[in-house]
Amino acid sequence: MSTRAVLEVIALGVEDAVAAQAGGADRLELVTDIAADGLTPPVGTFVGIRAAVDISLRVMLRLRDGFAAGDVEALVRTAGELRESGADEFVLGFLGEDGGPDLGTVERLAAELDGCRWTFHRAIDRAADRDALRKQLADVPGLDTYLTAGSPDGVDDGLPTLVAEAARRGEPGYTQRLLVGGGLRLDHVPRLRAAGIDAFHIGGAARPNGWASPVSVEAVRQWRTAVDG
Predict the structure, then answer these.
(1) pTM for this structure?
(2) What is the sign, positive or negative, of the torsion defined by CA atoms of 93, 88, 29, 191?
């Protein structure tokens, strides 16, 4: 069985997607409005990227900045439109005012996604209790990944948490894959790989010239080499 690590790259459009695939990315996270930490892209953007590359695409379901769901009906409609356009993998994550998961919204969306695989994103890093959140979400259909830095402040602070969670793989609430992202640097990768973590998520790191510039094939290739160890 292959143990090749997953490398996921944020793509804002077709140019990013083509470059990321050329550099060796396994999967893309599709977003718009990176200033708001990534919102749902237009359906047309998804369709264009889907036509341009043949790797997995996970589409963000998030219509506003922050970790509150906002208009749940609009989220459900958006998910339905994306599915009708061929999207079959997603990224979402919402917290209630108590800092726990917004289970009502997550379950509504999971029902709309109807078995599609999805990532619970970095809202986990803002949760009041990570362990409780994981156990509450353990049986929600389709959830196969947590995108996390281990800390709201990024991987530098979150490393001990990530290593500890990786060691619990297989326990109730810990069967999902850890996808590490958020201030991730190349020098973090060996320690994370040694802990058994096999999925990595990059955004700014794929763009040495900043978010105004497209993904760099060379930067992605450098990450591909690093995560393959």
Answers:
(1) 0.97
(2) positive
